[in-house]
Amino acid sequence: MTKHEIVMTAFKVWGRKLYLDTSLSELARELGVSKTALYRHFENKQALLDAMCRHFFDDYAAFIKPAYERSVRAEDKAEGFMLMVRAITEYYVRNMDAFVFSRVYIYGGREKTNIGAELKCRGIDMGRISMMDDCAYPSLLQLVFTTLMFGEAYFYKYAYASGEVPPGKAVQTMVDAVEEKITRGLGLRPEQVEAMDFDNLERLVLEESPAKIEDDGLLRAVAGAVAEAGPWKASMEMVAQRSGLSKSGLYAHFKSKKDMLIQLFLTEINRIISYANSVTRNSEEPLEQLYLTVMTVAFYFKSRPDFLYAIDWIKVRRLNLGDAVPLRVYRLFADIKIDALHLCTEDGAGDDAKYTVSRWILFLIVNTLIHWPHWKRTYKGEEDRDVLQSCGALFRGGKELDIPNTSIRRLFRFIVVGLQGFKI
Questions:
Q1: Which tens digit of pLDDT belongs to each residue from 298-322?
Q2: Contact 230, 312 (CB under 8 A)
Q3: Ramachandran quadrant class, 322 (left: phi over 0; alpha: psi -120 to 50; beta: rest)
Q4: Residue ranges covered by each domain of the chain
Q5: Residue 165 DSSP SS3
Q6: pLDDT digits 0-9 by tens, 189-226
Q7: Which residues contact 43 (CB under 8 A, 6 or more apart)?
Q8: C-alpha distances in angstroms, 216 versus 224, 328, 414?
Q9: Distance of CA 147 to CAs 101, 210, 227, 284, Å?
Q10: Cα dist. 354→94, 172, 184 in Å?
């Protein structure tokens, strides 16, 4: 048994549970050795995770470096950038273990890795090929990368959930699909967006403020506990402490911790649906309805940042909420009469797959809001660790996010027309 074998097995074993459980005992059983044998190679679990991180960046950089070198030489910066997008997409499509590790541990972990620095020390300076505007939020780079990650997650969920290595044709099809979505969005024309009266539409959203929705102090205590510890570590004790009830008193409201989480998510989802429906009925124009829906969903999350922070797009999918309610929230987008919202990649696919475009839109909204405080503070030059702590405190404290409407407009433009709608 070598260090390399241990590292590669850890990717598979811990990746199965999305790194919620990183048990050395389970890893030892998979390898057919004692737990003590692992300590001959790694001092502790963190040392192994650090080795996995180094392996990921070494392998990732080696794969995308040829595309990077072509990209920096390209006369057309946009074309050079798309070379990198295609290379990154292909890497993750071909390497499910790397995708899961990066999504959960690198990009989703509480201790953020300086990804740019890790790549730069391996000869890849993303600043040289990025033609994106870092001063605007969300940056186009963020929207592109979020779309790329969503496409890969969809690919593994519906096409290659078994973890088998996909054939070259499937890889190429997926890379093309991601590039199409990034380049053209829903495929509408930029001039259609230019003609929209955003100020008036935003006024309609404010008139139906979610503040009018009756608040539930107990569910807010649940949301605060989940925001602090995550869906799987939040305990009944934490909720009891926040709500002022005893733990036994909570059981008068919730049958179990699982029931508590389900009630939180179903209640909030139904409130979002009610709020969005009350706003979108003010227009019969499909493109306006789409913006009103995007804005109302974003505005609701802005007003309830503790619930926004509680959402983890990998872990929440494992909550058994039942099929009806998740599909109802996706219908907010799918019922709008824009052809591209009804695209399905496979004939005969179930309802869960048919709402792929709606899932992408909701994923973009959440990603844009959740990264706003981090971007805002980083842009002011604060220390990264302090930034993360202050961002977490903001979400958990329930203070409304101050992200401007111009950022939601920018997000909407990307959804509708992709990069073709921006001057790059």
A1: 999 988 888 887 775 445 555 555 5
A2: yes
A3: left
A4: 3-114+127-181, 190-421
A5: coil
A6: 999 999 999 999 999 998 876 655 555 678 888 888 87
A7: none
A8: 12, 22, 35
A9: 18, 28, 24, 28
A10: 24, 21, 20
Residues 6+ apart with CB under 8 A from 324: none
* Residues 6+ positions from 116 with CB-CB distance below 8 Å: 126, 127
SS (H, E, C) 335-402: CCCCHHHHCCCCCCCCHHHHCHHHHHHHHHHHHHHHHHHHHHHHHCCCCHHHHHHHHHHHHHHCCCCC
Class at the top of the CATH hierarchy for domain 190-421: mainly alpha
**Contact assessment for residue 151 and residue 89, using Cβ atoms and an 8 Å cutoff:** yes
Give the pair of three-digit tokens for residue 353.
């797959």
Tokens of 160: 């290659």
Residue 352: C-alpha distances to residues 271, 304, 343 (Å)? 21, 27, 13
For 135-154, give one letter per residue: b (16+ CB within 10 A) or e: eebbbbbbbbbbbbbbbbbb
Q: How far apart are the C-alpha atoms of 249 and 263, rounded to whole Å?
A: 16
Say how far apart CA 82 and CA 99 lie, in whole Å: 20
Domains 3-114+127-181 and 190-421 share a fold: yes
Amino acid at 190: P
Q: How far is CA 384 from the centre of its chain?
A: 20
| 383 — pLDDT class (breaks 50, 70, 90) | very low
Would you state the structure tokens that stand for residue 242, as one six-digit string?
Answer: 């926040």
Look up the pTM and report it: 0.84
For the chain, state the CA radius of gyration. 22
Assign a CATH topology to domain 3-114+127-181. Answer: Tetracycline Repressor; domain 2 (1.10.357)
pLDDT at 202 (0 to 100): 94
